């Protein structure tokens, strides 16, 4: 394994939790017959797709001399390293050493291969460690599994620590200020009280004195993958359909970069579905990207030690709870701290 319990809790907290699923990149980033190098949890990985669409994800490291497999040649069901031609299949097994047929490397599984799934236009991967190589059970976000819900995936990469991106989602009050001039979050009170409400999969962080007006609540869900759900009321001008919802996830690229995934969704059927999708593509999508740009600008402007020099108050209970969960999990996953 490239991810190890020998890493410190601080390293794990900075670069991403293990023994869980994470989104990696949108599915369209890897075309049939294509190779793509990606970075996730501070490590380099290779995504390659067979002509039939089957996807594999390998550590981007040839078992011979450590050269990047992503620089190699796609051979249909395997990759040939550019350096010396060593061939590795989608399971991480060495299938051929052209320079020395019969070499004892052949037939051995020497490259880490991650379990992958494709969901709603995104590639998800399970990142285990040497003690937990088998994937945990994955329950998909409800809005991405419901056939009556139409969703659009928005993906971007921000130069921020992944925990900053997650904390932003657990901070409903910022919508009333940072996004006040947007097309949906201009209404509602700029003062509020919040509470945490426990669920069997995480917790709600919600306003106690306002509902159905703005960014009034958010739910953190931990279902084999961490995701956030929230809902924003939409005016009639946005077309037919139920409440406008967002499923948000964050992929730790490394300690200073994050891939953010936002599925914007509505429950719509038949002709209303077509109307909603048309309105989204022609009018609403541009507005949504403007809101995301506000988040990116603010988060990238935060100093690296922003979470070390704060004065928090009641509105930040959801963030405090999130930090405690993530830090406790990072400590649990690190054997290095226990040894020290």
UniProtKB/TrEMBL annotation:
Its EC number is 1.14.13.-. Gene3D superfamilies: Naphthalene 1,2-dioxygenase Alpha Subunit, Chain A, domain 1, Rieske [2Fe-2S] iron-sulphur domain. The keyword tRNA processing does not apply. It comes from the Bacteria. PROSITE patterns: RIESKE. InterPro entries: Cholesterol_7-desaturase (IPR050584), Rieske_2Fe-2S (IPR017941), Rieske_2Fe-2S_sf (IPR036922), VanA_C_cat (IPR044043). Coiled coil: none annotated. Keywords: 2Fe-2S, Dioxygenase, Iron, Iron-sulfur, Metal-binding, Oxidoreductase. Residues 21-125 form the Rieske domain. Pfam families: Rieske (PF00355), VanA_C (PF19112). GO terms for molecular function: dioxygenase activity. PANTHER family: 3-KETOSTEROID-9-ALPHA-MONOOXYGENASE, OXYGENASE COMPONENT, IRON-SULFUR DOMAIN CONTAINING PROTEIN. This is Aromatic ring-hydroxylating dioxygenase subunit alpha. It comes from Streptomyces carpinensis.
């Amino acid at each position: 394994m490239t991810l190890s319990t020998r890493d410190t809790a601080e390293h794990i907290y900075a670069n991403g939790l293990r023994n869980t699923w994470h989104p990696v990149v949108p599915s369209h980033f890897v075309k049939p017959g294509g190779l793509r190098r990606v970075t996730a949890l501070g490590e380099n990985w290779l995504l390659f797709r067979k002509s039939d669409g089957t996807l594999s994800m390998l550590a981007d490291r040839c078992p011979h001399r450590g050269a990047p497999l992503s620089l190699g040649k796609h051979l249909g069901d395997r990759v040939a390293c550019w350096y010396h031609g060593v061939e590795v299949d989608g399971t991480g097994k060495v299938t051929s050493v052209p320079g020395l047929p019969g070499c004892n490397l052949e037939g051995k599984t020497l490259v880490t291969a991650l379990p992958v799934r494709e969901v709603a236009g995104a590639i998800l991967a399970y990142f285990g460690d040497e003690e937990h190589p088998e994937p945990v059970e994955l329950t998909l976000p409800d809005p991405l599994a419901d056939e009556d819900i139409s969703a659009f995936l928005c993906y971007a990469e921000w130069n921020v620590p992944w925990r900053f991106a997650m904390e932003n989602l657990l901070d409903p009050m910022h919508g009333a200020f940072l996004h006040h001039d947007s097309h949906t979050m201009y209404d509602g009170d700029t003062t509020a009280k919040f509470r945490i409400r426990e669920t069997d999969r995480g917790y709600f962080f919600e306003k106690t004195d306002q509902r159905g007006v703005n960014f009034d609540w958010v739910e953190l869900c931990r279902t084999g993958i961490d995701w956030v759900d929230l809902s924003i009321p939409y005016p009639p001008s946005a077309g037919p359909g139920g409440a406008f919802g967002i499923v948000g996830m964050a992929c730790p690229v490394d300690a200073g970069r994050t891939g953010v995934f936002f599925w914007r969704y509505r429950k719509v059927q038949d002709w209303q579905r077509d109307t909603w999708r048309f309105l989204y593509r022609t009018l609403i999508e541009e507005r949504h990207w403007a809101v995301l740009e506000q988040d990116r600008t603010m988060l990238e402007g935060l100093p690296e030690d922003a979470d070390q020099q704060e004065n928090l108050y009641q509105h930040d209970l959801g963030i405090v709870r999130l930090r405690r969960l993530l830090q406790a999990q990072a400590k649990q996953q690190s054997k290095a701290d226990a040894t020290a």
